[in-house]
Amino acid sequence: MPFKPMVAAGIERVLNTFLYREGALKPARQRLHGKVLRVVLQEFSSPFVLAFSERQVDVLGEWEGEADCSVITQLRVLPKLRDRQQLTALIRSGELEVQGDIQVVQNLVSLMDLAEFDPAEILAPWTGDIAAEGISKFLRGGARFLQHGFQRQQRYVAEVLTEEWRLAPGALEVAWFAEETAAVERAADALAKRLDKLEGK
């Protein structure tokens, strides 16, 4: 089975699970009914198309018709779209390019912001509520532990390179070097002006 249809099916499953399960999200979903959003990810050669209907969202790899809106971005930007406060900043910074009806993107972002992405809700039908919540907390704690460990190792490597092995200069040394370089540049400019003045006489 080709890679792209598998990715599209996975995205469709996740979106339908989180966005179309709760009845409380129906008013937000109604704003997207009948809309088509083309998502161009720079990591993939062809776009994904999200076709919204009353009961589900279809994620397609091929679409012949016109899309109401097209979004061009990168994979790393997609998690930031869950926060509707960041949408304008992402567009201004160029990380997210929107062509067509921007209202479609705004409605999708607000729907994703309202939806709760909790793995415990997915696990609960198979494991029970208590076990699902325990597994979810364990996974969140493990992710935080790994992230903290990675940041600590990054800090250790930076300190070893700058303090112990002296392979890279520290932040204060870089600032001092920049100031000294600027002072030498100013002195050279002053000397050049003085020489020009003397040559003019």
TrEMBL record:
Coiled-coil region: none
UniProt KW keywords: Cytoplasm, Ubiquinone biosynthesis
GO biological process, one term: ubiquinone biosynthetic process
Pathway assigned in UniProt: Cofactor biosynthesis; ubiquinone biosynthesis
Organism: Kosakonia quasisacchari
Entry-linked Pfam families: SCP2 (PF02036)
Keyword Cytoplasm: yes
InterPro entries: SCP2_sterol-bd_dom (IPR003033), SCP2_sterol-bd_dom_sf (IPR036527), UbiJ (IPR038989)
GO cellular component entries: cytoplasm
Record function comment: Required for ubiquinone (coenzyme Q) biosynthesis. Binds hydrophobic ubiquinone biosynthetic intermediates via its SCP2 domain and is essential for the stability of the Ubi complex. May constitute a docking platform where Ubi enzymes assemble and access their SCP2-bound polyprenyl substrates.
Major localization class: cytoplasm
Tree of life domain: Bacteria
Record family assignment: Belongs to the UbiJ family.
Subcellular localization(s) per the UniProt record: Cytoplasm
Protein name according to UniProt: Ubiquinone biosynthesis accessory factor UbiJ
Record-annotated SCP2 domain positions: 15-113
